[in-house]
């Protein structure tokens, strides 16, 4: 947590350090001139994306014979985002814990569905990035290729990495076959084995949803990523200088911002900087691009903090009532 917060704090410090008085005044003026009706609409868009994520998550429980309520599933999702602001990936455990409290769903089952979700999200984002490199035209494509072309020679040998990955998988499988089963008589090892098996059952749920639920899962996924991109497009209209930008620019901003989310906790400090870099490709001034980046990031966090805190209180009261 300290490392991720430190990265975010460094970027904020670096960002403020290189600004002169005129730039700070111009950024502040951009905030004052922004149309916050569009910011509010972007917040609604963010809330809808979390709601769709809850709908999608519920589908993974059906093959397990479980049917958590939409209210509790949505609350667990939003609490997870709140938890991730404090501790990296702690939110995933928090949402499973809140669902166990509210729905009596075993942690290992819900953790398995979360692992499935993350694997699918990683695959989907990889496809989106691949699509982005294919469909991006004009300045964005030129900027991307110019920035990366000089670094291709420095990339690690992918063949060696693949071989190392295969060797590690084989060693892990051998260790499981030769040692793990011999240790199952030990209590803590048995509990760990039960949890791993429960998680595997959760991961397998994606293959047993049926045609209708699988179709719904794909539709929900498409809507989630569309809402992410749409949020950036909406924020563009909050500023006169960016109001002319379209879906292509919103797509590029989404790609840049998503990278920022992986570098620091909740994207703090990094996300707005990368959004400004993306907007710079389209000739947007540094001051407006910075204000746009901070409003896009801030609108998302306001939703998570406000709604997440409310649900955290709700789940705490529910747990106390059950006791």
Question: Brief overview, please?
Answer:
By secondary structure, the chain is mainly α.
Keywords:
globular, mainly alpha
What do you see in this structure?
It is a single chain. With 323 residues, the chain is an all-alpha fold. Helices cover 80% and strands 0% of the residues. The protein has 13 helices and no strands. It has helices at residues 2-17, 21-33, 36-61, 70-86, 90-103, 107-135, 138-149, 158-178, 187-204, 210-236, 247-263, 270-280, 286-322. The protein is globular, with a radius of gyration of 22 Å.
What is the topology?
Layout: H1 2-17, H2 21-33, H3 36-61, H4 70-86, H5 90-103, H6 107-135, H7 138-149, H8 158-178, H9 187-204, H10 210-236, H11 247-263, H12 270-280, H13 286-322
Ranges where pLDDT stays below 50 over 5 or more residues in a row are: 1-5, 148-156
Q: Tell me, what's the shape?
A: globular
**Which oligomeric form is depicted?**
single chain
Helix content percent band: over 70%
Order of helices and strands: HHHHHHHHHHHHH
The N- and C-terminal alpha carbons lie at a distance of 31 Å
Estimated structural class: mainly alpha
**In DSSP terms, counting alpha (H) and pi (I) runs of 4 or more, how many helices?**
13
Radius of gyration: 22 Å
How many β strands by DSSP?
Answer: 0
Q: Give the DSSP E fraction (strand runs of 2 or more residues).
A: under 5%
Summarize the biggest pleated sheet.
none
Q: Quick check: average pLDDT?
A: 78
């Amino acid at each position: 947590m300290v490392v991720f917060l430190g990265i975010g704090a460094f970027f904020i410090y670096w960002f403020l350090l290189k600004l002169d008085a005129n730039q700070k005044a111009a950024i502040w003026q951009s905030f004052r001139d922004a149309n916050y009706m569009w910011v509010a609409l972007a917040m609604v868009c963010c809330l809808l994306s979390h709601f769709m994520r809850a709908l999608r998550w519920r589908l993974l429980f059906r093959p397990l014979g479980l049917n958590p309520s939409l209210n509790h599933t949505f609350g667990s999702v939003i609490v997870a985002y709140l938890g991730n602001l404090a501790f990296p990936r702690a939110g995933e455990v928090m949402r499973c814990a809140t669902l166990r409290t509210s729905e009596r769903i075993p942690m290992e089952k819900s953790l398995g569905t979360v692992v499935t979700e993350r694997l699918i999200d990683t695959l989907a984002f990889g496809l989106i990035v691949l699509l982005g490199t294919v469909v991006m035209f004009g300045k964005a494509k030129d900027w991307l290729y110019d920035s990366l072309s000089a670094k291709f020679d420095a990339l690690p040998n992918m063949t060696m990495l693949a071989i190392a990955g295969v060797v590690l998988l084989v060693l892990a499988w051998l260790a499981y076959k030769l040692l793990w089963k011999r240790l199952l008589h030990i209590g803590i090892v048995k509990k760990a084995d039960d949890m791993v098996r429960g998680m595997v059952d959760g991961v397998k749920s994606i293959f047993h949803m049926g045609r209708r639920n699988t179709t719904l899962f794909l539709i929900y996924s498409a809507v989630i990523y569309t809402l992410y991109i749409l949020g950036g497009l909406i924020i563009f209209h909050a500023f006169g200088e960016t109001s002319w930008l379209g879906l292509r620019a919103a797509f590029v901003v989404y790609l840049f911002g998503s990278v920022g989310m992986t570098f620091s906790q909740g994207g703090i400090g990094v996300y707005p900087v990368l959004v400004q870099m993306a907007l710079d490709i389209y000739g947007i001034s540094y001051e407006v691009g910075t204000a746009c980046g901070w409003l896009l990031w801030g609108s998302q966090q306001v939703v998570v903090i406000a709604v997440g805190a409310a649900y955290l209180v709700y789940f705490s009261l529910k747990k106390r009532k059950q006791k």
